[in-house]
Specification:
It is built from 11 helices and 7 strands. The protein is α+β, with helices and mostly antiparallel strands and about 375 residues long.
């Protein structure tokens, strides 16, 4: 899919000056300063003719009026988190489909490419790597592309479209090719923004591998968080491959400029490479998680063996102590009985009483020693 060639006349509203009765000539508009993001959701609106900037209106209403006065002009309107009223005004002016407008309002859409009549609706997921937090931040960009207008609706910090605008304005011959050229430049910027993310994630994967074999207890959480980010990254890059192939399939049908064809093929190569890298990261993280689980299990088994060995040694010591306690208890018991000072004890006046007590204690102790020795308690 791609855009058709630019129509000679754009669809206009009933109050369009092109359809109104002839009147006095309209003086050329004076350029307005770019709109500050702090003053509203309109980041910047610019009119171009033949690849050259004509004016920078300060409001949407002024942009609409000036575009109607420029039959061969093109409007590039950049919005950041626009209000519902602003999107509805754009929909009324450029005949945007209500489903596309609804998607742009709600955001959280998957990357896709839809055609509604003469308008293309493109959803892109941009990404940037935050070094301080060591995480990936995702943004969402909705693009409406018509025969003489391009509207970008940005949700999030990425991508930086001001750089795209500057680059296109520095190449008027490319900008003169129309909104389709701007769309390809935006696609290129989004895909180029993936490269630093890929490098950052590669560093994270290398660090995680080191932490796994170092036995860092927090590495499992980091693996899980990075895996979740790679799932989001896959959702951003995989559909984009099919979208670009659909655009390339329409080159011959819509007579796309040869220079734009080269640009889009280059973008398609980059996004395919990025998608393959992301798939490799997910596979690597899965393998690292398996290795980490194996190492944790081995560590737990080693700790259990150490505890078991310590328990076995402790049991052996308890056996020895218990055996000697039992051996020493026997003469203590006999001696305690014969140590009682009772008058009526038969053994007290027996001639062999003392030898008998000594022999009895020796026999009991020896018997217990032999029994415990045979049981390997001693």
């Amino acid at each position: 899919m791609t855009l058709p060639s630019k129509r000679p006349h754009r669809r206009r509203r009933a109050d369009d000056p092109a359809t109104a009765p002839p009147g006095p000539p309209v003086p050329p508009p004076q350029p307005a300063p770019p709109v500050s993001p702090d003053g509203g959701s309109v980041v910047r609106a610019t009119l171009y003719r033949d690849g050259r900037k004509v004016s920078s209106p300060g409001t949407l209403a002024e942009t609409f009026r000036l575009l109607r006065a420029e039959p061969d002009g093109m409007a590039w309107i950049g919005l950041h988190r626009p209000s519902e009223a602003e999107l509805l005004s754009l929909a009324a002016e450029f005949d945007l489909h209500e489903l596309a407008v609804e998607d742009a309002m709600e955001a959280h859409q998957r990357p896709k490419l839809e055609r509604y009549g003469d308008t293309l609706f493109v959803v892109l997921r941009a990404a940037r790597y935050l070094d301080a937090q060591e995480e990936v931040d995702f943004g969402e960009l909705h693009v409406f592309v018509g025969p003489d207008f391009l509207i970008t609706v940005r949700h999030g910090a990425a991508p930086d479209l001001s750089a795209v605008r500057r680059r296109m304005e520095e190449a008027p011959e490319l900008l003169a090719l129309g909104p389709e050229a701007v769309l390809y430049a935006i696609l290129d910027a989004v895909v180029d923004g993936y490269a630093p993310v890929v490098e950052g994630v590669q560093n994270d994967v290398d660090e995680i591998e080191t932490e796994v074999f170092r036995g860092d207890p927090e590495v499992s959480r980091r693996i899980y968080e990075l895996s979740r980010e790679m799932v989001e990254f896959q959702r951003a890059t995989r559909p984009l491959v099919g979208m670009l192939h659909n655009l390339m399939a329409g080159f011959a049908k819509y007579g796309t400029d040869e220079e734009l064809q080269r640009h889009l093929r280059d973008v398609a190569d980059h996004v395919t490479h990025t998608s393959e890298r992301v798939d490799g990261f997910r596979q690597a993280l899965t393998e690292i998680l398996t290795v980490n689980a194996t190492l944790v299990t081995q560590q737990q088994n080693a700790e259990m063996r150490a505890l078991a060995e310590a328990g076995f040694e402790q049991n052996e010591e308890i056996k020895k102590i218990s055996s000697w306690a039992a051996i020493l208890f026997a003469p203590t018991l006999v001696g305690t009985i014969y140590g009682m000072n009772f008058d009526h004890m038969p053994e007290l006046h027996w001639v062999y009483g003392y030898p008998f007590a000594v022999v009895l204690m020796a026999v009991v102790c020896t018997s217990l020693y032999v029994v415990f020795k045979r049981k390997d308690w001693l």
